[in-house]
Specification:
83 residues, mainly alpha
């Protein structure tokens, strides 16, 4: 009788242990999915910001080139030609 009770207790303990492992695994999977989703959002924002920065750098380069051309043209002008 005592052996049967111990066997039943051991079985319950094993079932409970397996259930806890399964639930922990499920929780970890959900946490990983949430973290992956958050990481993808951050990567998308980073990519978007990188593209914006590259556009700004191109605009700065274009403006710098125009400024240099204007300065070069102004240096070539005679003082009487400057408005």
């Amino acid at each position: 009788m005592i052996t049967h009770a111990m066997d039943a207790s051991n079985i319950e303990s094993l079932i409970l242990s397996q259930t806890i492992k399964m639930l922990n695994s499920e929780i970890n999977q959900k946490n990983n999915n949430a973290l992956n989703t958050e990481m993808l959002k951050m990567q998308t924002k980073t990519t978007t910001n990188t593209l914006k920065i590259n556009d700004y750098l191109k605009q700065i380069g274009s403006l710098k080139k125009k400024l240099q051309e204007t300065q070069s043209n102004a240096a070539k002008m005679k003082p009487s030609q400057i408005p």
